[in-house]
Amino acid sequence: MFLVQFALGQMTILSSSIIIKEMTALSFGERGLVASPLSPAKASRNRRVLIVEDERELCLTLADRFEDEGYEVEFAHDEQSGIRKIGEGTYDLIILDIMLPLGSGLDLCVRMRRMGVLTPVLFLTARSHVAEKVAGFKAGGDDYLTKPFDTLELMARVEALLRRGSASETGRADGEYQFGPVTLDVLRKKVTLNGQEVTLTSREFQLLRYLAENSGKTISREELLEEVWGDLSGNITRTVDMHVAGLRQKLESNPRRPELILTEPGAGYRFQP
């Protein structure tokens, strides 16, 4: 059951495990008092979002918000139904709860990345420890938001992930970079090593693309966090190191002596094809 309170133009929705706060404008319509979100511009139509969450009341709340912003929303309520929907459909964004019946959101994310699905993943969970966030990124997640959360922040993060996904489709006219035995096909979101496809997480792909587009330039960890991860205040720069190490393991002939992604001590990383 929801308890809705109105105070000073703010709507607070209480459910069993989450509080969602959002600035609203109140107006009278045919159905009585209506709360209209004071949100940013509407999202482009036909953006598809899959939300894997077992709390049904939260799903209904998120469905209302996403549909109001112009998104198409589908739901799954456990790991098995989630991986089935991911295998059968195409989505622009996937939101995963970590604690799921019949498995976990972390395991689901790992499975979809192994399937070659590069769709951005936002973890939405009550777990807030740094170790849990790191586990989410290692599993292939792109962003992390803890409950209780503000829906304005949620939508801002969703829009940022979708913008970065769109940006990854731009770059060179032919959308392809060749550096030694490695080929990066931006348009098809595909990476090959000696002709064999390499499975990258969505974040690894975005990181490789950004490095490739800035070949020869030393890029600080702070810049990479801002440009590839977005504004994640408080996240440590070791996140960048972890993802660079992952790319080296997958692309370098000798990850201990990298020739492609070089470390510039005290400065950051330099992509040297």
Indicate the topology.
Elements: E1 3-7, E2 10-14, E3 19-29, E4 32-37, E5 47-52, H1 56-68, E6 71-76, H2 79-88, E7 93-96, E8 99-100, E9 103-104, H3 105-114, E10 121-125, H4 130-138, E11 143-146, E12 149-150, H5 151-167, E13 176-179, E14 182-185, E15 190-193, E16 196-198, H6 202-213, E17 218-219, H7 221-229, H8 238-251, E18 261-264, E19 268-271
Parallel strand pairs: 3-12, 5-6, 5-7, 7-10, 10-11
Antiparallel strand pairs: 1-2, 2-3, 3-4, 8-9, 13-14, 14-15, 15-16, 17-19, 18-19
Helix pairs in contact: 2-3, 6-7, 6-8
**CATH topology-level name of the largest domain:** Rossmann fold
Strand content is 25-35%
Order of helices and strands: EEEEEHEHEEEHEHEEHEEEEHEHHEE
Alpha-carbon distance between the two ends: 57 Å
What's the CATH architecture name of the largest domain? 3-Layer(aba) Sandwich
- Say how many strands there are: 19
CATH class of the largest domain: Alpha Beta
Give the % helix: 25-40%
Number of helices: 8
Could you list the spans in which at least 5 consecutive residues all have pLDDT below 50?
A: 1-45, 167-173
CATH superfamily of the largest domain: Response regulator
Assign an overall shape: globular
Provide the residue-averaged pLDDT.
Answer: 77
